[in-house]
Specification:
The chain is α+β, with helices and mostly antiparallel strands. The N and C termini lie far apart (53 Å). The strands form 4 sheets. Strands 16, 17, 18, 19, 20 and 21 form a 6-stranded mixed sheet that branches. A hairpin with a 5-residue loop joins strand 14 and strand 15. The longest helix is centred in the first third of the chain and has 22 residues. It has 18 helices and 21 strands. Helix 6 packs across helix 8 and helix 14 packs across helix 16. It is globular and about 60 Å long. It binds protoporphyrin IX containing FE and iron/sulfur cluster.
Length: 551
């Protein structure tokens, strides 16, 4: 956990007071919706189909139990009793009333939660691995660096009006759980030959209308230089980014148009001017941030406690354990992923009651800590292995012991036409239907790891380009159609999926997914070959044939 200091608390409180005044002026008519727009966007407030939508940042996905309880309170008191966890370690509330928003903000500010820069053309929430600090084998806790960048970029004058929104993600593990290759800047923590900590810096990734996988701009930037290097990238982007055309304004387009070599040369030139200036981090600053992260007082525990051996006789527990429980860097502990993907429900939603109960479970079994991951699931980062059966029972009592992590029903989906004013098609009902088709756990298990990602329009909030199966809603003659891509992935081997053929109507999407899965089961070289690997080996053609043979 990280302890905010007085500067943060003052800043957030001032923001709330300022926004309260802005809302008052909007409600009295003194400000038009147009005038209000800029002001609300800087605080994560959108105007959507039915209501204002409020987006709150969860820096590097780390939440304390009292913070989760406060989110539950906001859901219950100001919204319709639930919240929606998104792919960028944010939570969104869809039905909040404008007049009550300042109160909700003030309630959140009390526990150190805020929404600054969760929309608008600025630096968004800096995201990281949801297992940061507990994943075995990571170089070091990437949140220390995420926090440094958070402080550096919050209300940074030059980064407040960028050509377009800007997203940074950091990982410190070989397996990338932060999807760094689809971010404007991706940082991979590593050590150089001298054993010094630094970063491989990637740039120009992003989804949306024109998707790109990020390219490496520099294989190693020393930790002390990371702020100046990021600043150099942003200066070049700020100078050359296409402010004249919103569709070409993201840094990915600039990198693509200039070419990575030319872009890198520009950045290098800028960096040389500033690298030895005020942004050079001295070790004291890094250590100060490090000292504000608290880690639990772990006990010395057996690797395989009796309680776990006993519980292994229960097939339901085992089914859950096999896909929800992951190794922890401390012996005797485990990381538990809490799936927010119940069969037939909107992916990523949690009710106020579930949030409260999870906060209690975290207090009892996970040192009061909860994490939010980019797959729209939560995690309990420090569970004693002997407590796993009890955690499972507690999760089952609130409908969250769902044994589908990484399986076909662990779907990422954007809100689509149910909430979003930009949508062309529904996403949530498609996700619900697919989860119903694959509700049988044995079938899902037989299929193995398969990520389905759904977006309701080209903006790609549901990451459809990098889904193993990607589903994109498009509109044709006022009807909802869906384009299907396969073979995408968002991890260290990130690639964009390939379109398999013409778009299909709403009613056929789940059938098409079933066809693709059946084709995979028939084509895979062995039960160990993952869906994405079969697609990589064979290409899309056999899948295209299977899907369109009868259509
Ligand atoms: C209903 C409210 C929402 C609105 C109006 C909205 C709007 C947008 C827009 C306009 C873009 C395209 C930006 C660009 O390419 O420059 C975008 C991208 C994105 N949004 Fe949303 N979004 C919403 C909800 C969400 C949700 C719920 C999620 C997560 C589940 C999400 C995650 C993302 C991500 C990951 C991207 C892709 C970023 C990239 O280009 O790399 N958004 N959103
Ligand atoms: S992908 Fe489109 S429909 Fe879905 S949330 Fe984003 S903007 Fe809305």
């Amino acid at each position: 956990m990280y302890a905010y200091d007085e500067i943060d608390r003052t800043l957030v409180n001032e923001r709330v007071a300022e926004f309260r005044d802005q809302v008052k002026r909007r409600l009295s008519g003194e400000l038009s919706e147009d005038e209000f727009k800029m002001l609300r966007l800087q605080n994560g407030v959108y105007l959507q189909l039915h209501a204002y939508m409020y987006r709150i940042a969860i820096p590097y996905g780390t939440l304390a139990s009292n913070q989760l309880r406060r989110l539950a309170h906001v859901a219950r008191r100001y919204d319709r009793g639930y919240g929606h966890f998104t792919t960028r370690q944010n939570i969104q509330f869809n039905w909040i009333k404008l007049a009550e928003l300042p109160d909700a903000m003030a309630d959140l500010a009390e526990v150190g939660i805020q929404s600054m820069q969760t929309s608008g053309n600025n630096m968004r929430n800096v995201t990281s691995d949801q297992w940061a600090g507990v994943a075995p084998g990571e170089v070091e806790d990437p949140r220390i660096w995420a926090e440094l960048l958070r402080q550096f970029t919050t209300l940074h004058p030059e980064f407040s009006f960028l050509p377009r929104k800007f997203k940074i993600a950091i990982t410190a593990s070989d397996h990338d759980r932060a999807a760094i290759k689809i971010h404007d800047i991706g940082l991979r923590l590593k050590k150089n030959e001298q054993g010094e900590t630094g970063f491989e810096v990637l740039v120009g990734g992003g989804l949306g209308r024109t998707p790109f996988i990020a390219k490496t701009i520099k294989p190693f930037v020393h930790g002390h230089d990371i702020l100046s290097y990021v600043e150099a990238i942003l200066r070049v982007y700020n100078q050359y980014g296409r402010r004249d055309n919103i569709y070409k304004a993201r840094i990915k387009i600039l990198v693509h148009e200039l070419g990575i070599e030319k872009f890198a040369a520009e950045v290098e030139e800028e960096w040389q001017q500033i690298r030895d200036g005020v942004l050079k981090l001295d070790q004291g600053i890094i250590e100060d941030i490090r000292s504000r992260f608290f880690y639990p007082a772990y006990e010395t525990l057996p690797h395989m406690p009796e309680e776990l051996k006993q519980a292994a006789h229960d097939p339901k527990f085992e089914a859950w354990r096999k896909n929800s429980v992951f190794p922890h860097k401390v012996q005797g502990y485990a990381i538990v992923t809490v799936s927010l993907k119940p069969i037939g429900k909107p992916p990523g939603d949690a009710t106020a009651d579930q949030m409260d109960a999870l906060a209690d479970i975290a207090d009892k079994y996970s040192f009061g800590e909860i994490r939010v991951g980019h797959e729209q699931n939560l995690a309990l980062p420090h569970v004693r292995k002997r407590d796993l059966p009890a955690v499972w029972k507690a999760l089952e009592a609130i409908g969250l012991a769902i044994p589908n992590v990484n399986l076909v029903s662990d779907i990422i989906a954007c809100p689509g036409l149910d909430y979003c004013s930009l949508a062309n098609a529904r996403s949530i009902p498609i996700a619900q239907e697919i989860t119903r088709r694959f509700a049988n756990h044995d079938t899902a298990n037989l299929i193995g790891r398969l990520h389905i990602n759904i977006s309701g329009c080209i903006n790609a909030c549901g990451h459809h380009h990098v889904g193993h199966i990607g589903i994109l809603g498009v509109e044709k003659n006022n009807e909802e159609f869906y384009q299907i891509t396969i073979g995408g992935r968002a991890d260290e081997g990130a690639v964009l999926g390939t379109l398999i053929g013409p778009a299909v109507p709403y009613a056929e999407v789940a059938d098409v997914v079933e066809d693709i899965v059946e084709a995979y089961l028939a084509l895979r070289a062995s039960p160990e070959e993952l869906f994405v690997d079969t697609v990589k080996r064979l290409g899309v053609e056999p899948f295209r044939e299977r899907v369109y043979a009868t259509r």
